[in-house]
Amino acid sequence: MEGDDTGPINIGNPGEFTMLELAEAVKELINPEVQIITVENTPDDPRQRKPVITKAKESLGWEPKVKLREGIPLMEADFRQRLGIPGTN
After folding, report:
1. d(CA 40, CA 43)
2. Inside any domain, residue 6
3. What are the tens digits of pLDDT across the range 20-45?
4. Is 3 helix (H, G, I), strand (E, B) or coil?
5. HEC profile of 57-83
6. Hey, what long-range contacts does 59-63 have (CB within 8 A, 24 or more apart)?
7. What integer best gives the mean pLDDT of the chain?
8. 30 falls within a domain
9. Dihedral angle sign, alpha carbons of residues 71, 77, 78, 79
10. From which residue to which does the signal peptide run (predicted)?
């Protein structure tokens, strides 16, 4: 690639949510029968998972367009298609 930018460019959604909130959304949208099991964080586990996407906006003109709850079913459908697993409808 050519250009003046160096280093990583974070791509992600800057909206913050906990791993439990993510698990609960996946459970609600994909399989309400799933049991969520929690374990203690490891010492090196980041407390905050919020990408800074300023560089992506400035250098690439990119910003997220799909919200978490919209993206989970899309991701499920994509994984099923790639793995050849029929849908649950």
Report:
1. 9
2. no
3. 899 999 999 999 999 999 998 888 88
4. coil
5. HHHHCCCCCCCHHHHHHHHHHHHHHHH
6. 59/3, 59/5, 59/9, 60/9, 62/11
7. 88
8. yes
9. positive
10. none
